[in-house]
Amino acid sequence: MQARRNVSRQDITDGLAETVVQIGGDPLTVRKAKEELSAVLGKARNGVPQVIGNIKKADDMAEVISVKDLAELVTAARQQETFGEALDAIGFKPYSGGRIIVDQGRKRDRLQSSSNATGAKTAL
Fold first, then answer.
1. N or C of the chain: less Cβ packing under 10 Å?
2. Environment class of residue 50 by beta-carbon count within 10 Å: exposed (0-12), middle (13-18) or buried (19+)?
3. Mind listing the pLDDT tens digit for each residue in 60-77?
4. What is the pLDDT of residues 16-52, one digit of tens each?
5. What are phi and psi of 52, to 5 degrees?
6. pLDDT tens per residue across span 97-112
């Protein structure tokens, strides 16, 4: 846990850039974003972040998100909720049925080593 607290700002920037590219797709060039500004804004308003800039330079990248999504981010950052509270917030309901019995799976033969010092095979 302590190692996570010592993460550099650059590591955070690089990690965020990788994450937003996975969510929103490959970054748009500035030229393409200008040409397709209406589409960029439409996707952002529908919850799909739009990344603009050079993927090789995370510091030069920018992201377009809706004000609604920004408000959600700010609200989430201000809350210090537990994992259980987060599950409650999204409506998670634990399984309330009977006991679940998990089978051990199919039986398998024991692995055999190729040989020991005497040449006889032994079970592992």
1. N
2. buried
3. 888 898 999 888 888 877
4. 888 877 877 788 999 999 999 999 999 989 988 888 9
5. -125, 130
6. 777 676 776 776 777 7
Question: What is the rounded CA–CA span in Å between residue 98 and residue 78?
Answer: 38
Q: Which tokens sit at 11?
A: 């590591």
Gap between the Cα atoms of 122 and 10, Å rounded: 53
* Secondary structure (DSSP) of 25-38: -SPBPHHHHHHTHH
| Tokens at 114, concatenated | 């190729």
The number of CA neighbours under 13 Å toward the Cβ of 51 is 21
The structure tokens 């996570």 sit at 4
Regarding pTM above 0.85, the answer is no
CA–CA separation, 120 and 31 (whole Å):
71
